[in-house]
Write a structure and sequence with these properties.
Layout (H helix, E strand, L loop, with lengths): L1 H28 L3 H32 L5 H28 L41 H19 L9 H23 L4 H5 L7 H19 L6 E2 L2 E2 L7 H19 L11 H27 L4 H16 L7 H24 L8 H19 L21 H29 L8 H6 L1 H6 L5 H4 L7 H14 L6
Antiparallel strand pairs: 1-2
Length: 485
């Protein structure tokens, strides 16, 4: 049996050697159908994970909102996801990834590819991701992955605006943001625009997705104003969310979804070590939790559970831009710092009277800035070398990359801030951005949607508590006088 096994091994080795020239020729000709299928499956799986992050946003925001607004948050999540998908299909994808100039794309409207079965080159896409083989997937897979990113950025915007925003305001802003504002900034880097040409790097969106969403969120809450009762006599008052368990469920769902967000951004599986990116992402998230726990102890003198959850999100946001460019030890440092700075930023926002119910500005905005800059500090030369990553400043490199990262951040904040300010002011002075005081006090569930998310907590529902009903009936029968036969 041993001799037979050796013979079979020799035959297999011989066949393999005979096949090497053919394999080499195939490699020169381009990706095989199997390569394209594997890459496409990985990208679609990543997109599904990112799509599921909407459930995470729903649970997180519902948990940190008041009970009387829980249903309104759920409705807001699903309507905005729907608008994002439709608007990105109509205009956003073309503006972000179609051929054009350094500012925006100008082809591919309504996903109008020259060949629906062809790769992304049929739309003239020249994303920097193409340098690592992103074009080896169908255009539909690429669209699916990018549209759910756009939906995440939109979800961030409204985290600061809970409990007081008109539903129509959400809808109008969502149309403009997903159809025009977000795609233009995405084009600057991922669509081969002017920032990409300058060497700006953001692998999965610390700046493009998260900072852009947080910038719009800051503008929105400034135009909207704080919730009733948040500030009294100039002092901030805590308005706790109604369910920390729901909030933490949302955090964990987002954490899982981030595996698609970061690791899926390789836009391919063949020949790419996406597991390395997943490891960096998890390390940063874990370090973010530890950092925020320490930060909460220093700032609040307590083990604040909501800060622990926000620390995880801060670490995830911060590692999103550099996840493919840094070593694991650097991922830990990046996540730890992101978590540490979140609690003091929460306090600072309260002091300057900015009402951010879920902490979107610290964990998506400040952490997004930190993570984008971290590329210029910690990048390791040779990681995804096709993208021209140079050594980070703290590893002996120059400050050139750090400078590019800095003005890329400034451009993102400047354009997004100005554009969203115009949109929010237009909404405010036309259809109105904020509900009335009476409606806010009553709760958006009943004033905007006609039903509470938790109806049994606010209105009498016949049969809602059958156990209590049976218990009361039983007690009544025990107290009823009996008659003798």
């Amino acid at each position: 049996m041993r001799l037979r096994s050796l013979r079979m091994t020799s035959v297999a080795a011989g066949l393999l050697l005979l096949g090497v020239p053919g394999l080499a020729a195939a490699a020169e000709e381009g990706p095989t159908p199997t390569d394209i299928a594997v890459n496409s499956m990985w990208v679609v799986l990543g997109a599904i994970l990112v799509l599921f992050m909407q459930a995470g946003f729903a649970m997180l925001e519902i948990g940190l909102s008041r009970m009387k607004n829980a249903g309104a948050v759920a409705g807001k999540i699903v309507i905005n996801l729907s608008i994002a998908i439709l608007m990105f299909w109509a205009t956003g994808f073309a503006l972000a990834f179609g051929d054009g100039d350094g500012f925006w794309g100008q082809m591919g409207w309504f996903l109008n590819a020259t060949d629906a079965a062809a790769d992304t080159n049929s739309l003239g896409l020249n994303s920097f991701m193409n340098a690592i083989g992103a074009y080896n997937i169908p255009v539909e897979a690429f669209f699916f992955f990018q549209v759910v990113f756009c939906a995440v950025s939109l979800a961030i915007v409204f985290g600061t605006m809970l409990d007081r925003t008109k539903f129509i305001g959400y809808i109008i802003f969502a149309v403009v943001f997903t159809g025009f504002i977000y795609p233009i900034v995405a084009h600057w880097t991922w669509g081969g625009g002017w920032l990409y040409q300058d060497g700006f790097l953001d692998f999965a969106g610390s700046s493009i997705v998260h900072l852009q969403g947080a910038t719009a969120a800051l503008i929105g809450t400034l135009v909207l104003g704080p919730r009733i009762g948040k500030f009294r006599d100039g002092k901030p008052q805590p308005i706790p969310g109604h369910s920390i368990p729901l909030f933490m469920l949302g955090v964990i769902i987002l954490w899982v979804g981030w595996m698609g967000f970061n690791a899926g951004s390789t836009l391919g599986a063949v020949g790419l070590n996406f597991a390395d990116i997943a490891v960096n992402t998890n390390l940063a998230a874990a370090a973010g939790v530890i950092g925020a726990t320490i930060g909460a102890l220093l700032v609040f003198r307590t083990l604040d559970v909501s800060q622990m959850g926000n620390g995880a999100i801060a670490g995830l946001v911060a590692i999103t831009a550099p996840c493919a460019f840094v070593d694991p030890w650097a991922a830990v440092v990046i996540g730890l710092v992101a978590g540490l700075i979140a609690p003091p930023i929460v306090v600072l926002l309260d002091k300057i009277r900015i009402d951010d119910p879920i902490g979107a500005i610290p964990v998506h905005g400040i952490a997004g800035i930190w993570g984008t800059l971290a590329i210029g500090l910690f990048a390791t030369e040779g990681r995804l070398g096709e993208l021209g990553v140079s050594q980070g400043l703290l590893l002996g490199g120059s400050a050139e990359q750090l400078w590019v990262q800095f003005y890329g951040i400034a451009a993102t904040i400047g354009f997004t801030g100005a554009a969203t300010l115009i949109v929010f002011l237009a909404i405010k002075y036309t259809v109105g951005l904020r509900v009335s005081e009476d409606e806010e006090l009553a709760g958006l569930d009943i004033s905007e949607h006609g039903m509470y998310g938790y109806p049994e907590q606010f209105i009498e529902v016949p049969g809602a508590f059958p156990e209590a009903t049976r218990h009361s009936a039983g007690m009544a029968s025990l107290s009823r006088p009996t008659t003798s036969g």
